[in-house]
Design brief:
The structure is a single chain. This protein has 26 helices and 7 strands. It is α/β, with parallel strands linked by helices. It is 47% helix and 8% strand. It is elongated, with a radius of gyration of 34 Å. α1 crosses α2 (17-26), α16 packs parallel to α19 and α22 runs parallel beside α24 (453-466). The termini are far apart. It has 4 domains: 2-82, no CATH class; 130-265, Rossmann fold; 271-332 and 344-364, Helicase, Ruva Protein, domain 3, CATH 1.10.8; 377-466, Zinc Finger, Delta Prime, domain 3. The strands form 2 sheets. The protein has a 5-stranded parallel sheet with strand order 2-3-4-1-5, with helices on both faces. A two-stranded parallel sheet has the order 6-7.
Length: 546
């Protein structure tokens, strides 16, 4: 009954039934005031203004209806203070920056918030670069249309939109979903239990018509028992679980949790995707870049391109770097710098133009941001690419992957150790000097260190890439180990003629009897394998194809 009254109140204010239902869903259905705030904060392109209302005066007419119902709370809301705003002449009027929410909970956007947070997409159609999971024919799009969100795990590099997608999915559903966010960095089982109990109370309170989406950021940081705590509540439908992780779920999430969730892999954003997000931040005069500096900002196209290419697919890094670039450019405007306290909560004068150029980007981006975790999956991905490039005799690609690892902060001794292994495993007998080169490279890196030892690494990698390859010893050892492990009834003892006889007793027992000293009789026939393996060949050398 209470929900019907809230819906009726919104309809009486002139909002359509569809918008009223969407507002109640986005704000949890707790208050008509919150729902109205949410509606008034949306861009006009998303709202449908009734024909009887003037498009230039939606806020004023809505406020008249709000005062009818909520006069006691009017002093708490910024839109009720419009009559107190000093009047200015038409010649003095300038466009002002307004405030809009950046998440499912209606909050005021403030200049103190990072640009990346203010520009966070609110709806699925605003997500950039992840069309493979959010396209028109994707199962997530179908789930949103049917208002039946599944439990999922979002896996991708930092800054690719995991948190944004989770919030956008909830905001894009027209039915009632409550969004609850936890971080595995600062939360524990107690926090999860409280969130689940709240979800069950909410579900039971309204007869099962509303569910809770529990978003857990950095879910890979939870241990096994903490992850297991999600299993029963996902199973009985108490929550819709959305986890976000930068680590491979196969290694860091328990199998029962994976079996209850669909793992979706997010792509690293391309330069064109980053540029689109940066241009969106520049063009948005309500919560974009202009709000950060209190001035209208123009960013040169060359600066956008350079910034997009320097952030390695991380949208958060790109947007925050753009904000710093704008601050740097603002410093060049004489007499225009104001403190954050002065700009907080004030509209921004758009007549004062701040121009961001390529030099500002170069100043801010002293070095390229690289998505590289020395203890994570990207560490293993890059070393794998390096080894496979050398194995394929592509010295150019191998040196490129070396540069990626060094720029990401990889320890040179780790790379050098892998080169020593490669010299025997992949080059082997085809060029025995390769092992000498690799060991010398390792010693050089140990003695010299970075940055000079990068040249030793590059020389050794080039040598190993161009050297002939042979895996004969690698195969021979693997075959011998297989025979040892699979020997039926245990491995045979060492033949007596191959044993030493340091004592008279051992000589009397036949140790060493019949052994032929090879240097003195190089052509004498003699066997060195156990009787059951006579004639067995483990090493094929020289290769049969030469």
């Amino acid at each position: 009954m209470a929900d019907n009254n809230k819906m009726e109140n919104l309809l009486n204010m002139g909002f359509s039934e569809e918008l009223a239902a969407q507002a109640l869903a986005a704000t949890g259905g707790d208050s008509t005031v919150k729902a109205t705030e949410w509606l008034l904060s949306q861009p006009q392109s998303r709202l449908q203004t009734p024909p009887s209302q003037s498009i230039s005066q939606p806020q004023q007419q809505s406020q008249l209806k709000l005062n009818k119902f909520f006069l006691s709370n009017s002093s708490k809301h910024p839109f009720t203070q419009a009559p107190e705003t000093p009047q200015i002449s038409p010649s003095q009027k300038r466009p002002k920056l307004s405030v809009t929410p950046s998440s499912s909970t209606p909050i005021d956007t403030k200049p103190s918030e990072p640009l990346s947070e203010r520009m966070r997409p609110r709806f699925v159609d605003e997500i950039v670069g992840q069309d493979h999971i959010l396209g028109p024919n994707s199962f997530l799009s179908s789930a949103v249309k049917c208002n039946r969100l599944p439990s999922i795990v979002l896996w991708g590099p930092p800054g690719t939109g995991k948190t944004s997608i989770a919030k956008a999915l909830v905001n894009s559903c027209s039915c009632s979903y409550k969004f609850v966010s936890l971080s595995a960095v600062s939360s524990g089982v107690k926090d999860v239990r409280e969130a689940v109990e709240g979800a069950r109370r909410l579900r039971d309170k309204i007869g099962g018509g509303k569910r809770t989406v529990l978003f857990v950021d950095e879910v890979h940081r939870f241990n096994k028992s903490q992850q297991d705590s999600f299993l029963p509540v996902i199973e009985d439908g108490s929550i819709v679980f959305i986890g976000a992780t930068t680590e491979n779920p196969s290694f860091h999430l328990v199998t029962p949790l994976l079996s209850r969730c669909r793992v979706l892999t997010l792509n690293q954003l391309q330069c064109c995707d980053i540029e689109k997000l940066l241009n969106r931040a520049v063009d948005d005069l309500e919560k974009g870049l202009s709000l950060s500096v209190g001035r209208k900002v123009e960013v040169k196209h060359e600066a956008i391109e350079l910034l997009g290419s320097q952030c390695d697919g991380d949208a958060r890094v790109a947007l925050n770097a753009l904000e710093v670039c704008a601050t740097t450019a603002l410093g060049r405007v004489p007499g225009k710098v104001q403190s954050s306290g002065e700009s907080e909560g004030r509209s921004c004068d758009l007549d004062d133009l701040v121009v961001v150029n390529v030099e500002d980007v170069k100043e801010v981006m002293q070095c390229k941001h690289l998505a590289y975790d020395k203890a994570g999956e990207e560490h293993y991905n890059l070393i794998s690419a390096l080894i496979k490039s050398m194995r394929g005799s592509d010295a150019n690609a191998a040196i490129y992957w070396l540069a990626r690892m060094l720029e990401g902060g990889e320890q040179p001794l780790y790379i050098a150790r892998r080169l020593v292994v490669f010299a025997s495993e992949d080059v082997g007998l085809a060029d025995p000097n390769a092992l000498l080169q690799a060991v010398a490279c390792h010693q050089a890196c140990h003695i010299i260190g970075m940055p000079e030892c990068r040249l030793n690494l590059a020389q050794c990698i080039a040598y190993l890439s161009l050297a002939p390859k042979s895996v004969a010893t690698y195969k021979a050892l693997n075959e011998a180990m297989r025979v040892v492990k699979e020997s039926v009834g245990g491995n045979e003892g060492v033949p007596l003629h191959l044993r030493n006889a340091p004592t008279k007793l051992m000589g009397d027992l036949g140790y060493g009897k019949g052994y032929i000293y090879t240097p003195e009789n190089p052509t004498a026939p003699q066997s060195f394998l156990p009787p059951s393996l006579l004639g067995k060949k483990f090493l094929e050398w020289p290769p049969s194809d030469t």
